[in-house]
Amino acid sequence: MVEPAFKPGMMVRVRDIPVKGHMRTPAYVRGRQGWIEGLQGTFPNPERRAYGADGLPPVPLYLVRFRQSDLWPGYDGSDSLVLDIFEHWLERAEKTHGP
Amino acid sequence: MAHDHDHSVSPHPESKDHPVRDWESREAAIRDLLIEKGVLDAGEIRRKIEEWEQKTPALGARIVARAWCDPAFEARLLADANAAAGELGIDARGVKIVALKNTPSLHHVVVCTLCSCYPRTVLGLPPAWYKSKAYRSRAVSEPRKVLAEFGTVLPEGVELRVADSTADCRYLVLPVRPAGTDSLSEEALAQLVTRDAMIGVAQASPPA
Amino acid sequence: MHDLGGLPAGPVERDEHDPGLAERRVDALMVLLMGHGVFNVDEMRRTIESLPPDIYERHDYYERWLLTIERLLIEKGVLTAEEIETRLRDQARHG
């Protein structure tokens, strides 16, 4: 099995890949930085399964946490947001601040 | 009602007759054809409808009440919610469910911005508002305002964490056990756990 | 169109209506057809996402799912559009 690229606590950025067609990475996190909360498991790639392929080999899926103040202008305070993102949508980011 | 023809994949299925019930006729037509062609049979359709009528938030409420009463169960729930549900005889096989524990300093609320994913196997079918554009749009960007619309106001010091179920996981909120419930049985506790508390737009009700 | 997170919107209308039988029928069709491997959940999402925006806007949740199921059944060659329209005409004639 493929070794997951990221570990909990790592700071990552959501890549802004120009995918045409089905994908599960919302626009509001593209280009944003957050932290790996955990690995949810590996799952077949929905971007391929959406067109009838089996989506294998399965791709690691991470729970990624963001500060709401990093996502929305004018959002103050310590609220957060988590969502599931596939590995190929993430890259390491420089640690600029703590969670 | 205006006609609208989409020529891409199939003729656009918009009937000029009976606009209100047109889709129900269309469902019946498709269902009858599928049965005639042996793709599905009438019995399994009936059984599937009955199966889903049995799935209600009462299932999730039992899971929450057990977690409140039994810390070891709670730990198993947080590690593998599908298996924990199975311990209570709740069939939550299939899609991975993850339980999110609320604490006095952390409150979770769940949304699916991209479609309307929902932990159906433990809560049943989602309410219409959960699937609405307004909820899907604003639960991520203005969750405190959305919660206030549901009558839920969290203190400043509590972190509000939105969980957007974007992929293969569905989320079930484990609400904080209300104060003054030490003497209640597990069954009585389950009565305090509402669907809205397990979505996260509300907290569990205090005892009456 | 479907990627709604953060878009401006009005208050959440507290529509609490339970799905009726017709809606539950659509739900059952969806679950069974996926269970039988006719299509998968990602194909459903892809199809619903490619509904033209005015269709997406105009139809309610279960109507959109029914349109999606229909499109996929046609795409997969399980049914044809003609068969469906013929059956609808026959239904309308005979009540």
Descriptive report:
The complex is a heterotrimer of chains A (99), B (208) and C (95). Chain A is mainly β and 99 residues long. Helix content of chain A is 8%, strand content 34%. Chain A has helices at 46-49, 68-71, and strands spanning 11-14, 33-43, 59-67, 80-86, 90-92. A 5-stranded antiparallel β-sheet of chain A has the order 4-3-2-1-5. The longest helix of chain A is centred in the middle third of the chain and has 4 residues, at 46-49. The radius of gyration of chain A is 14 Å and the shape is globular. Chain B folds into 2 domains: 22-53, no CATH class; 56-199, Alpha-Beta Complex (Nitrile Hydratase, Chain A). Chain B is 42% helix and 12% strand. Chain B has helices at residues 22-36, 42-54, 57-69, 71-79, 81-87, 120-123, 133-141, 143-149, 186-191, 195-199, and strands at 96-101, 106-111, 159-164, 169-174. Residues 1-20 of chain B have low confidence and may be disordered. Chain C is mainly alpha-helical. Helices cover 62% and strands 0% of the residues of chain C. Chain C has helices spanning 21-35, 41-49, 53-58, 61-75, 81-94. The radius of gyration of chain C is 15 Å and the shape is globular. The N and C termini of chain C lie far apart (37 Å). The relative contact order of chain C is 0.12. Classes of the chains: A mainly beta (99), B alpha/beta (208), C mainly alpha (95). Chains in contact: A-B, A-C, B-C.
